[in-house]
Design goal:
Blueprint: H1 6-12, H2 27-41, H3 45-58, H4 63-66, H5 68-78, H6 82-99, H7 107-123, H8 127-147, H9 153-172, H10 176-196, H11 201-220, H12 226-243, H13 248-268, H14 270-285, H15 292-321, E1 331-335, H16 342-345, E2 349-354, H17 360-376, E3 381-387, E4 392-395, E5 400-403, H18 411-424, E6 431-434, H19 440-443, E7 448-449, E8 451-455, E9 461-466, H20 470-484, H21 496-505, E10 515-516, H22 522-526
Parallel strand pairs: 2-3, 3-6
Antiparallel strand pairs: 1-6, 2-8, 4-5, 7-10, 8-9
Helix pairs in contact: 2-3, 2-5, 5-6, 6-7, 7-8, 7-9, 8-9, 9-10, 9-11, 10-11, 11-12, 11-13, 12-13, 13-14, 13-15, 14-15, 20-21
């Protein structure tokens, strides 16, 4: 699925970009926009609302004035008035829907506004309204297509665009059955159009986007069909990228799919990731183009290759640790617990989370770790955070942790700082602090943070994952439940049955983030 970064553009781009480039702006319309913006800039939202209502009555068909709803949504979001922010985006979406029949160039703005609407809806807890908006728009677009004697190309594109964004929204809401229903519909239509016009880059891209959505959905649900879906996607894009090497969008789709696959496979199948990396490297180095956009895409891809190469190396090192015996933390200090010894871990499922206070992706992992600690502790899970002293102190004025550059922070003081940081982040599971000279992190090949190591009741390492994010979190949780369910049947643990049921229904998921600690048939979709 294509990265949905449109929201950033909606929030920071000037309002002039919201309408068609060909439309002229009258001095009166420009002045009207300025009046509204002045009130917004001065944070006088009530006055701005009145001014907007006045100008919409004066210029009811001005897409630029209607686009000011974006600015209002952003202003209300900054005030944590998320429902009002959502209402403004909903009004904008309604306007675009009613105007696209007369101004087809607004289809893209409508799709972009839907992205923003879905995100505002999540924050405002209005997910049902978001789904209703998506379904309403899809129904109306299809109706327009049925009523038209000749289909407007931008209308066809809008149907695909909106459906793909709906699939993305449903995946984020974990409504996987609904997402799959729309995905099957999208695949059927995209394949049919591609088979009719396989030489059209637009139809190639639509099928490529549908194939990417399938990979994403199969990944987040932990489907056994994931690898098959990924192979079909990569085979299709490899063929099309060679044929349309001059097309930046198809080239981008190829690069995104391959580099994302290498990233994912480096965690689970590092040897295959290495093979795919060499194939991608050869393809990238073989691209010859004088088009600036293509050159930029290739340059960005080349810059990512060393990082991916390191991921493959780390993945192979981690693979060698699987099924080997683990060793308990070598801690010089503990937080949130009395010192833990080897006996405290006997017969338990152990999760080691290697992290640091300066690691932003580590922050994303804390809520899941805290939840697992609370939810699975009685089942036999022990969560332990592993970190070091990094010479941090506490800024009382800003009430946050800060890096010290002018003095060495004593270990006793930094331990207190870590305790305050843990309370601020609501971390209540045990934290182990290793000595500066400790080899503990190196023994687990910790290069990138956060890194998770899962140990079974048998004392063997069963899973190592690097990074944070929904995909990795669900994958880890699925393995936690699987390992907990492996408890011998003779156990009297009353939660074993419930844990087993969870394991049977758990899901795995997509994209991760991290910080560096140290220096249908393939032939059906590829035929010409």
């Amino acid at each position: 699925m294509r990265p949905l970064l449109i929201l950033i553009g909606i929030l920071v781009f000037p309002v002039w970009g919201a309408a068609s480039e060909s439309a002229e702006v009258s001095p009166e319309e420009r002045a009207a926009i300025k009046e509204v913006q002045i009130h917004l800039q001065q944070n006088r939202l009530e006055d701005a609302e009145q001014e907007l209502e006045k100008q919409l009555a004066e210029f009811p068909k001005s897409s630029r004035i209607h686009a000011l709803h974006m600015n209002f949504a952003y202003a209300y979001r900054r005030r944590d008035e998320h429902s009002t922010a959502f209402d403004h985006m909903e009004k904008l979406v309604d306007y675009y829907l009613s105007s696209t029949s007369e101004e087809p160039e607004l289809y893209q703005q409508m799709a972009n506004a839907l992205d923003a609407l879905s995100r505002y809806g999540q924050v405002a807890d209005r997910q049902e309204r978001v789904s209703e908006n998506f379904e309403k728009i899809l129904a109306r677009l299809k109706q327009r297509g049925e009523e038209s004697e000749t289909l407007e190309p931008r209308l066809i594109g809008a149907v695909h665009d909106v459906r793909l964004r709906l699939i993305d929204f449903l995946i984020r809401q974990q409504e996987y059955e609904e997402a799959d229903r729309y995905l099957m519909e999208e695949l059927v239509e995209a394949k049919k159009e591609y088979e009719e016009k396989s030489d059209s880059p637009d139809f190639v891209l639509r099928l490529a986007n549908a194939l990417q959505s399938r990979v994403t959905l199969r990944e987040v649900t932990g489907s056994e069909e994931l690898e098959d879906a990924r192979q079909r996607q990569l085979a299709f894009l490899e063929l099309k990228a060679k044929k349309f090497s001059y097309n930046p969008e198809i080239l981008t789709a190829y690069l995104d799919a391959h580099l994302t696959a290498i990233n994912a496979l480096s965690r689970s199948h590092p040897d295959r990731a290495g093979e795919l990396l060499e194939k991608s490297r050869s393809f990238i180095n073989g691209i010859q183009s004088e088009e600036r956009v293509v050159e930029q895409k290739v340059m960005i891809a080349k810059r990512s290759l060393p990082f991916l190469h390191q991921l493959v190396i780390d993945g192979k090192r981690h693979a060698k640790l699987l099924e080997t015996s683990w060793t308990p933390p070598e801690a010089i200090s503990w937080l949130n617990t009395d010192p833990l010894k080897a006996d405290d871990f006997a017969g338990k499922v152990v999760l080691l989370d290697f992290w640091s206070v300066w690691c932003v992706p580590c922050l994303d992992a804390f809520p899941d770790l805290t939840r697992w600690h609370k939810e699975y502790a009685d089942d036999g899970l022990v969560v332990v955070g592993i970190t070091r002293f990094y010479n941090y102190s506490w800024d009382e004025k800003r009430d946050q942790i800060v890096k010290e550059v002018e003095r060495v922070v004593p270990e006793k003081e930094e331990l207190e700082v870590l305790g305050r940081y843990a309370r601020q982040q609501e971390i209540d599971y045990p934290l182990a602090i290793t000595a500066p000279e400790s080899e503990y992190q190196r023994n687990y090949h910790v290069v990138t943070l956060p890194q998770t190591v899962l140990v079974g009741r048998d004392g063997k390492i069963h899973l190592i994952r690097v990074g944070s994010g929904p995909t990795i979190a669900r994958e880890i949780e699925r393995k936690i439940e699987e390992l907990l369910a492996a408890e011998p049947e003779s156990s009297s643990n009353p939660k074993t049955e419930a844990t087993t049921e969870k394991a049977a229904n758990s899901e795995a998921a997509s994209k991760s983030s991290s910080s560096k600690e140290s220096p249908e048939k393939v032939s059906d979709e590829t035929k010409e």
